[in-house]
Amino acid sequence: MRLFVDSSVLIAAAASAEGASREVFHRASTRDWRLITTPYAVAEVTRNLAGFAAPVTATWLRLRARLDLVDDVLTIDKPAVFPVNKDRPILFSALATADVLLTLDRADFGRLLGTHFYGLTIMTPGMWLVRETEAGGEGAS
């Protein structure tokens, strides 16, 4: 399963050992989950880490090593009405490379959470883990 992890999830995973964002990293190591992100998302994480203590940056570097970095996708060949210009590269890159987009960005992705965008499932990490656990699939402990 290819999971695109946006910057909000990456920051949450680095900042807290508890919660669904870090749990996705934990479970990915024992499941057939490929964690994907892009240089655009990594740059956003790097900008935001300046406001955190040094241990968060150290955790981020360990987590970063477990991600597959793919090229940013800036346009798609399908109609897309998505008003948030800064998050189009996230949505379009996820669509091009993943089965699921994991995000905590409710401000920009809130109306898409729990839905699909041209077949791409969009969820929070918590939603993903619950769905997989209930299905008895890869998310089950």
Fold and architecture overview:
The chain is α/β, with parallel strands linked by helices. Strands 3-2-1-4-6-5 form a six-stranded mixed beta sheet. It has helices at 7-15, 20-28, 39-49, 54-64, 88-97, 106-109, 125-134, and strands at residues 2-5, 34-37, 68-69, 100-102, 115-117, 120-123. α1 (7-15) crosses α2. The mean pLDDT is 89.
Give the SSE order as H and E letters.
EHHEHHEHEHEEH
Widest sheet, order of strands? 3-2-1-4-6-5
Helical fraction = 40-55%
Largest sheet: 6 strands, mixed
What would you report as the Rg, rounded to the nearest angstrom? Answer: 14 Å
Total number of β-strand segments?
6
List low-pLDDT spans. Answer: none
CATH class: Alpha Beta
Q: Count helical runs.
A: 7
Domain count: the total is 1
Give the oligomeric state of the chains in this entry, treating copies of one chain as homo and distinct chains as hetero. Answer: single chain
Shape type:
globular
What is the average per-residue confidence, as pLDDT, rounded to a whole number?
89
CATH topology: Rossmann fold
CATH superfamily: 5'-nuclease
Task: Estimate the strand proportion.
Answer: 5-15%
- The CATH architecture category equals 3-Layer(aba) Sandwich
Structural class: alpha/beta
Terminal residue distance: 16 Å
Element layout with pairings:
Elements: E1 2-5, H1 7-15, H2 20-28, E2 34-37, H3 39-49, H4 54-64, E3 68-69, H5 88-97, E4 100-102, H6 106-109, E5 115-117, E6 120-123, H7 125-134
Parallel strand pairs: 1-2, 1-4, 2-3, 4-6
Antiparallel strand pairs: 5-6
Helix pairs in contact: 1-2, 1-3, 1-4
